Structure formats: structure tokens, C-alpha cells
């Protein structure tokens, strides 16, 4: 009976180490699976970051290509507009009809401003009947007359004593800029009945300030024709040798206008003036007037326009750089935020992994302690069994001795 108990207890103690080994292997497998999962998540995160970087680079490249295309379109549009303007300018130079530039010159009080309003059919220029100069500086007004664009440049009185030489030079320069690339006609405005020595020298003044060839683009324009009473303009001119000499120096002849607020009273005077200007332009080869000064001014204007275009281009480039920098900074912020988020996730994963490892180690330690405790108990049981076995051996020996002694006595009695 005792032997069976010993065997059963021994088998029970032998099963516990096997269960502990299975638990250990199970935990090792779980740890391996967890690490595989972490590795898979890490690879997924790296793949996601790689795709984000590729997407960012792709967007940057698309933005760069889009800007290059925009610049190319702008350049092509500028080139198209430039060619169109050149073509229009060539056409204007051929015909002289699409766009006329008129410069009004004359002494103070001749009626230049009123003449400009009469030509354009409006009241763009300020008028005054006083002998004082109304136009203190060059002024430009534009309009459309008879289907063509007309620019009229009004100038201060060129013999005005209130205007200094320096100021007159400045106004002449303004006139060049306003009439660039060159006027089609200089209208020398003279009020009928007030022809003076100063006006006799006007053509020379035009030549001195605008160039020798300017006289071939000059036309005398009389104002105040309604004050001649019963005389015609032709009769008035025929009676003045000085006027005839002045007109002979001008390539455009002469014309007269009445600057009345009621344009319907003289409906033909402006069309006739424009017709004479057209004929003069044709005689001059369909070209507007130009000289070295106008060409210099034209170059300055073109250089200024080129400078402005360059500044605009640099400004756009600067804006693009700022936008790119802003995009780059934003992408950098997003990247940093994602890195921080990813690091935080990895940190949490690592903390969880360490916590799981700590728990696993704690459980392993507990299992080891339990195993050692079981082993200690098993050793204690084995020791007790051994002691019990020793006692049983002693009892058996005692019983054996008693049996031997009894047998000895029995044999002795039998003898």
C-alpha cells in the first residue's frame, strides 16, 4: 500500500516540470510573434513614410513644372503681344491712319488747349480766355475720332516768359515721352489777327528743339477764323507775306478751325484737318516723325519696360521662392509632426513591449520560484519517503529477526 502511494506521488511530481516547459515555450512563441508584429508595423511605417516622401517630391516636381509652364506661357504671350504691337506699329507706319499722334505747339493764348478739345470732341484740356498760359506743363489726352485712335499732346507756350529755360527743357522731354515713338504732325497753332515776330520764328524753334526734319511734319493751324468778319482764311494768308513764308517752311500746309463748344456748327473742320494730316503722312512715306532724340527716348522707354518686366519676373520668382519656402516649411513641419507621432507610437510600442517583457519575466520568475518550491516539496516528500522506507526496512528487518527467532524457538521446541 505504501509502495503504491510513493509511485503515485512520484508520477505527480514528474508532470509539473513538463507543464512548466510547455508554458515557457508558449511564452517564447508569443514573444516571437509579438516581435514579428512589431517588425511588420515598423516596415509598414517606413513604407508609409517613403510613400509620403515620394508624394511630396512628386508634388514639388508638378509645382515646378506648372510654374515653368506658366512662365513659358507668359513669355510666349509677351512675345505674341510684342510681335502684335510691332505688326500694328508697322501697319501704322505704312498707313498712318490707325493711330495718329498730334503735338500742339504755339505761343500762349493761341488756343492750343481749345484746339485739342475740338479735335477730340471733348473737354479733356482745360481752357481759359485769359492771356495767361493755362497749360503749365505738357498734357496728353486720347480719344477715338472717325474709327482711329488719336493722341493729342498739348504743350506750354514756347515763348512764355513765365516758363524758365530749365522748365521748358523738362517739358520738352515730357513731350518726347508722351509722343514716343514720334508724332505724325506738329500743329503750329496761330490765332488769326495776332501774327507776331515770335510766331515767325516758331518753325526754327521747332527745328531747334525737335530736329531739322520736323518742319516737314509741321502744319499751321489757324484759330479764331470766325473773327475775320467777311475775309476768308485764304484772303488773310494772301495778304501777309510773313504768313506765306511761314507756311512755305511747313511741309503740311495750313488749315483753320473754329473752337466752338457747338461742334455741329462746323462738322467738317476736324475730318478735313485729319484728311490733310493723312496726306502729309503719306507724303512723308507713311512714317511718323522720328530723330535721334525720339529713338533715344524710345530706347529708354523700352529699357524701362524691360526693367519693369525684369523686376516683375524677379518679383514673381521671389514670390515663388517664398511659396516654395512656405511649402517646404509646412512639409517639414508635417514631416516632423509625423516623425514625432511615429516616435511616440514606437515609444508606446516599446513601453508596451518592455511592460510585456517585464510581466513575462515576472511570470517566469514566479514560475521558477513555484518550480523550485515544487522541487523543494518534492525533495521533502522524497526525503520523507526515504525516511518512511528506512523505517519500513527497519521494521521489516525487525520482523525478519523476530520471524527467525520464532523459527529458531520452534525448531528448538520440536527437538
Structural overview:
It is a single chain. This protein is α/β, with parallel strands linked by helices. Among the domains are: 45-95; 96-290, P-loop containing nucleotide triphosphate hydrolases (Rossmann fold), CATH 3.40.50.300. The protein has helices at 2-95, 112-120, 165-179, 197-200, 202-210, 233-238, 241-248, 269-283, 292-414, and strands spanning 99-105, 139-145, 148-154, 185-191, 218-223, 254-257. α1 packs antiparallel against α9 (292-414). It is rod-shaped. It starts with a helix and ends with a helix. It comes from Oncorhynchus tshawytscha.
Descriptive labels:
415 residues; alpha/beta; Rossmann fold; 6-stranded mixed sheet; 68% helix; 9% strand; rod-shaped; disordered N terminus; AIG1-type G domain-containing protein
Topology (elements, then pairings):
Layout lengths: L1 H94 L3 E7 L6 H9 L18 E7 L2 E7 L10 H15 L5 E7 L5 H4 L1 H9 L7 E6 L9 H6 L2 H8 L5 E4 L11 H15 L8 H123 L1
Parallel strand pairs: 1-3, 1-4, 4-5, 5-6
Antiparallel strand pairs: 2-3
InterPro entries: G_AIG1 (IPR006703), GIMA/IAN/Toc (IPR045058), P-loop_NTPase (IPR027417)
Keywords: GTP-binding, Nucleotide-binding
Family: Belongs to the TRAFAC class TrmE-Era-EngA-EngB-Septin-like GTPase superfamily. AIG1/Toc34/Toc159-like paraseptin GTPase family. IAN subfamily.
Amino acid at each position: 500500500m505504501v509502495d503504491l502511494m510513493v509511485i503515485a506521488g512520484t508520477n505527480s511530481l514528474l508532470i509539473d516540470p513538463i507543464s512548466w516547459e510547455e508554458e515557457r515555450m508558449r511564452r517564447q512563441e508569443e514573444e516571437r510573434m509579438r516581435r514579428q508584429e512589431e517588425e511588420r508595423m515598423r516596415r509598414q511605417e517606413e513604407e508609409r513614410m517613403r510613400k509620403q516622401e515620394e508624394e511630396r517630391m512628386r508634388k514639388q516636381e508638378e509645382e515646378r513644372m506648372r510654374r515653368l509652364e506658366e512662365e513659358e506661357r507668359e513669355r510666349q504671350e509677351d512675345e505674341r503681344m510684342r510681335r502684335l504691337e510691332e505688326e500694328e506699329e508697322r501697319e501704322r507706319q505704312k498707313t498712318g491712319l490707325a493711330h495718329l499722334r498730334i503735338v500742339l505747339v504755339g505761343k500762349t493764348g493761341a488756343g492750343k488747349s481749345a484746339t485739342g478739345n475740338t479735335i477730340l470732341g471733348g473737354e479733356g484740356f482745360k481752357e481759359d480766355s485769359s492771356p495767361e498760359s493755362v497749360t503749365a506743363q505738357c498734357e496728353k489726352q486720347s480719344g477715338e475720332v472717325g474709327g482711329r485712335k488719336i493722341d493729342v499732346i498739348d504743350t506750354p507756350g514756347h515763348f512764355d516768359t513765365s516758363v524758365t529755360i530749365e522748365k521748358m527743357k523738362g517739358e520738352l522731354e515730357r513731350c518726347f515721352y508722351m509722343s514716343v515713338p514720334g508724332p505724325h504732325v506738329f500743329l503750329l497753332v496761330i490765332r488769326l489777327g495776332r501774327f507776331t515776330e515770335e510766331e515767325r520764328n516758331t518753325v526754327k524753334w521747332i527745328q531747334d528743339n525737335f530736329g531739322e526734319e520736323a518742319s516737314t511734319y509741321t502744319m499751321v493751324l489757324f484759330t479764331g477764323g470766325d473773327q475775320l468778319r467777311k475775309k476768308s482764311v485764304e484772303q488773310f494768308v494772301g495778304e501777309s507775306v510773313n504768313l506765306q513764308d511761314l507756311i512755305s517752311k511747313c511741309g503740311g500746309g495750313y488749315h483753320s478751325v473754329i473752337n466752338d463748344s457747338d461742334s455741329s456748327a462746323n462738322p467738317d473742320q476736324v475730318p478735313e484737318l485729319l484728311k490733310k494730316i493723312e496726306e502729309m503722312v503719306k507724303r512723308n512715306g507713311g512714317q511718323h516723325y522720328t530723330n535721334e532724340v525720339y529713338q533715344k527716348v524710345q530706347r529708354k522707354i523700352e529699357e524701362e519696360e524691360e526693367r519693369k518686366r525684369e523686376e516683375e519676373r524677379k518679383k514673381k520668382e521671389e514670390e515663388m521662392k517664398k511659396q516654395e519656402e512656405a511649402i517646404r516649411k509646412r512639409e517639414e513641419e508635417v514631416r516632423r509632426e509625423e516623425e514625432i507621432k511615429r516616435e511616440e507610437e514606437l515609444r508606446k510600442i516599446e513601453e508596451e513591449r518592455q511592460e510585456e517583457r517585464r510581466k513575462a519575466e515576472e511570470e517566469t520568475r514566479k514560475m521558477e520560484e513555484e518550480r523550485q518550491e515544487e522541487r523543494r516539496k518534492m525533495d521533502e516528500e522524497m526525503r520523507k519517503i526515504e525516511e518512511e522506507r528506512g523505517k519500513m526496512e527497519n521494521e521489516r528487518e525487525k520482523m525478519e529477526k523476530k520471524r527467525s527467532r520464532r523459527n529458531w524457538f520452534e525448531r528448538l521446541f520440536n527437538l
